[in-house]
Amino acid sequence: MTTAQFVIRTEGLTKVFGKVRALDGLDLAIRQGEVHGFLGPNGSGKSTTIRVLLGLMKATSGRAELFGRDPWANAALLHHRLAYVAGDVALWPALTGGQCLDVLGATHSGINKRRRADLIQRFDLDPTKRVRDYSKGNRQKVALIAALAADAELLVLDEPTSGLDPLMEQAFQECVRNRRQDGSTVLLSSHIMGEVEALADRVSIIRRGRTVTSGTLAELRSRTRSTVHAVTAREPDGLAGAEGVADHHTERLDGHVDSRFTIDTGHLDAVIGRLHAAGIHTLTVTPPSLDALFLRNYEKSPTPDEADGDVVAAEAAS
Amino acid sequence: MSTGAHGAPDHTGGLATMLSITARIQRRNALLWVLALGASMVGTAAGVASLYDTPAKIHSYAAAVTTGNALLAINGKVEGIDSLGGVIQDEFGFMASFLLPLLGIALVARATRREEEAGRLELFLGGRIARHEPTLAALLVATATIAVTAVLFAVGLAVSGVAVAGAVLYASSLGALAFVFAGLAALLAQLTRHARDVYLWCVMALAASYVLRGVGDTTRTWVGWLSPLGWAEKAAPLGAQRWWTLAIPVAVGLAFGGAAVALAARRDLGSALAGGGVGPQHASPALRSPFGFAAWLHRPAILGWLAGGVLLGGMMGALSRQLLSAMAGNPALAQAMGIAGGRPLDGFVAATQLYLAVIAAGYVVQAFGTLRAEEADGRLETRLSGTLTRIRWLATHTLVVLGGLIIVVLVSSLVLGLATAVSVGNLAELGPTLASGLAYLPAELVFAGLALALYGCRPRMFFIAWAGYAAATFIAFLGPGLKFRQWVLDVAPTTHVGNPPLGTAQPAALIVMAVIALVLAAVGCAAFRRRGVPQG
User: Fold this and answer.
1) For the complex shown, is ipTM > 0.90?
2) How far apart are CA B303 and CA B299, in angstroms?
């Protein structure tokens, strides 16, 4: 794949603030037309990455490219093609919501008036109220509407739905899907796994300024383990020693055999064969949720180096 | 903290907790106020004591400033002026009548409505704090700060040679003045929706007090008794020593504060008398342009400082004829006002222009401080994530700030010139008055350069700009009168202007200051281009 297809690309990006290494060799690649989920705990460097990508901060070392160019040198030029919602939405308290929308819109290259009106209605925003009288959720809506109404190829959204209610969350997801259909690229930094699972084509998880894992959700899942709970008529033959099986527990219940274990997705077929031979009574196979993927990446990887791709099995709650 | 019987938690710890929180939040701010006020008072007292070291000198000063009504209106009527303490009270009177009320207002507004507006009050009230306790704690901390300030005043005055009773009464009357405004601010914080409205209404009340006190003093009527500034004056610490007058500000302050605490206990969180209005759905084309937006952002600062300049210029101009005739009758008055030699009218305009220059410099520092606030509050990040380049953003704001500076200087000078011309009946004063106002521009630009350099290089260090401004103001106002050493006087940029129109403006010095300002500004711009945004 050539660089031209990447809207955003960083390689070995580092950013040092005094003694703190906020970014420590971060790699990120976002293809044109995809919604890219950007996950990481608080303080892992998501906002710093975004600020470097917007040319607001200069990387200490490494490479950052936005539309194939250096964002630090060409910040304002590249901003013609994107719209941004900052992690901490800060607006001018004395302006009304509508005025803020227009001021923010004017800083983007263009605002689609019909879309603006449509979004105000969809997000149920009163644009005549002063920002200082808005709740946090309403301030968030102003920033979101301004970004979503802009004619931008790239939307950079830093935790855009914090403070929104589930109804608004749904409206937001719909809008992002629409924009994706129109061909826009979206960088979505978020804490809300359901939102990322629902929207993202690909996901990057970072930790302490480094990329821990990256790929489509299916890829991430295939690299991890599913949880199996099977009740069979007989003891499955050689299950405990089978390739890919771990965390195996078994017990006899009411004349059935109750087995729980985790499995590499690649060996699932062979193991199901063994279960089948033992006479399946009930069977649940639970793929890891994004939540579990995320948590596992943080709980069980002491150093970022060994974490890449080597994700320990997730225990799905049942 | 322990709880009492089950289901009935004991609540005694709430106020103590709130007091320690408020004290912690306010401690730096309060310390700065106490030190600045204490230094101004002690500096003034020590300076006056060394300058007026014989009864004869004090007598001639007293005779000078009591000639005519003009100085009565400005500094207030000092009973017992024919004494060391009297001279100090007169010299400090103008500054004190603004600084002490502002002390009370700032301490309380910061700890009440601002905390509520920011949503932090909700955090406290969600804890074990009762609704009225934050207001009560704010008032108690403010009162303690005021008390410390008053003690410093009393000690400073006594050390300078003022009789102890007079020193204590004078310090108490100033403390009581601050207390009234602290109570007023606490009450307004319950009634208005935003901290800026608390400041606005308090400052209007202060302006009204000043006018009432001036009217009362010049007409010698009861009108002065309507003003908190009048109550402080009627205590007459160096004259009749009416201790009982202290009861008035204390009672009024307690009434205001009590009403505020009672209201805080009864009203809903976030509520106010005045509801939030609605506004336009769309931004005007001007607001959408970078230049128009910058103008909108700096407009409050421009208008606020301009109002100060216009009021001062108008007041001084209107009083000019009275002052001149007083000076003609008593040459020592010119000396006391810091106007020596040359044409009295020129000296008078020059003295006023120095005040206007300090106003203009204050505006400049505040305007660049607005940029700092834009960044610290996170709005700059949004602004620069668009198609506006950094350097264009900074250049646009700098241009607007400088445009505002020229408006403040020109309009204030114009009002001063016109009021003077009307008062003395000679329009020929207008040109030199305007020219002398403009001559201060390079000195004001040095403050702009300093503020811009700090903002560009180390935005967290922006307070240095304010500290420099405070020091320069103190030196400019009191340095010459108190005979500071030349190198101290030279620290203030205004010293180098040449005191026009009494003296001649110094072109070489003006050019040097303009170059210094340019270099500082260039350093600030270059640093701003290279640094990360935002720096909190």
Assistant:
1) no
2) 6
